[in-house]
Amino acid sequence: MNRNNFKKIASLFLIYSLVLFSCQKVLDPEVVQLPTADNAIQTAADVDKAVAAAYSFLRSVLPDKVFLMGDVRANTFESYSQTSNTRPETLIATNTIGPLLNNGGGDWSGFYKVIAQCNLVLESIPTIQNYDQSAKRRSLGEASFLRGLTYFYLTRFWGDVPVNLKAVDVDNISRTPQAQVYDQIKKDLDVAIANLAPSYSAGDKAVRATKGAAWAIKAHVLAWLQDYAGSEKLCDSVINNGQYSLIADTTQLLRIFIGKSQEGIFELNFDAALKEVQKNKVYNRTLGRPWYTDGSDGGGGTEKFLLCPPPALITQMFPVKTVDGRKSTWLTNSSKNYDPTRPYLGKYRTLQVQGDTTSQNINESNIIVTRLADIMLLRAEALASTQVNRPAEAIIWLNKVRERAKAREYTSGGSLQDTILLERRKELLGEGQIFFDYVRTRKLAAYSKITQADWYTKGAWLLPISQTILSQSGFIITQNSFWQ
């Protein structure tokens, strides 16, 4: 089940791909022609287009994969009925091989497409003549950031993964031990930190990599590696660099998902006016009418065919009679004949503004990779850890997020670590974080359907690798042991 062919997508670069990208005025909604391995990249303008392509490839692979394997697998979404009209994605939470593979959990090829493009950029940059140094540093930083981020997703999903740093590699590559993968991730993020500026133009805010974005992702990397002291310092750098602030008005929280808000650190840009649209299953799986009228999902946007947070989870996150502005913002009802116990995930409902509901190309909302509230809560987690052991400060950062939501201040009681984890579930619902949170904090058995006591050591949290990837590699790539 696990295997990737690293004929490093030589064929990928022999095809001219039409890639659409905005995020920066110099590219506007022009059609970007991807340079190939044959014509390489010969000018600074070619580099700009190639970096744009890398962002576009990431935008194509990340939303669907991370929602399914970062949220649904964590048992935070389920079908309207568990016995009839059950969506196939619901079974991902059972952690059985069929549903995981059938819903793309064994396919890492899209991530390697991003990596191959970044490799092409990084190989080409030193060959460009008369290259403005500030533009050169930015391109170097962005390509390194995107490669590091992509490998971070890969290794959190599949563990040991092939590491390739060449644009075109005709040889199959075996899996690299996780420790070495993380060494490469940290190197890439350090290059990004050294070369990226704290900010660029207003139009690029959050949708292009910056120094703050690289700090934020590296903070997550170090927390994943249980280096909470290092993670806390990087969170401090993000919070105090003057580029980000929480949206204070609770009624305006949806601005986060419209995109480029004051608390956005890194997100995937979607804008119909700039032709950055695709049939994004995150949206059509979680939103019904009036946002979707298309019937290709089998239900025409009706609630029976939606994935929704289970009622028990909603009650756990937002107990009856407690005040929390996120309940009415993150979750919403919208049809007259709607079951009020099954609210939609409403974070992305701003997509109706310019979207095409008949084709489901309505993804006007941005997909958040990381934002300030995430980093504040990650800092709280680090401060509350036994390694750092500064619980009073952890409570301060926890309460900053709770205060914005008009939720009751936390003072004491129960486990502080569990309280922070629950806060992350409430704040980041539907943003692809929670499964990673459960694994990082070793709480997976307590909150998901992966309940075996040795889930971590046995690798039950890792995804299987598809048989196609295994066989294409000539079985140089081997299956994760839990799935053998």
From TrEMBL:
<protein>
    <submittedName>
        <fullName>SusD family protein</fullName>
    </submittedName>
</protein>
<feature type="domain" description="RagB/SusD">
    <location>
        <begin position="321"/>
        <end position="443"/>
    </location>
</feature>
<dbReference type="GO" id="GO:0009279">
    <property type="term" value="C:cell outer membrane"/>
</dbReference>
<dbReference type="Pfam" id="PF14322">
    <property type="entry name" value="SusD-like_3"/>
</dbReference>
<dbReference type="InterPro" id="IPR033985">
    <property type="entry name" value="SusD-like_N"/>
</dbReference>
<comment type="similarity">
    <text>Belongs to the SusD family.</text>
</comment>
<feature type="domain" description="SusD-like N-terminal">
    <location>
        <begin position="97"/>
        <end position="221"/>
    </location>
</feature>
<keyword id="KW-0732">Signal</keyword>
<keyword id="KW-0472">Membrane</keyword>
<dbReference type="InterPro" id="IPR012944">
    <property type="entry name" value="SusD_RagB_dom"/>
</dbReference>
<dbReference type="InterPro" id="IPR011990">
    <property type="entry name" value="TPR-like_helical_dom_sf"/>
</dbReference>
<dbReference type="Pfam" id="PF07980">
    <property type="entry name" value="SusD_RagB"/>
</dbReference>
<feature type="signal peptide">
    <location>
        <begin position="1"/>
        <end position="22"/>
    </location>
</feature>
<keyword id="KW-0998">Cell outer membrane</keyword>
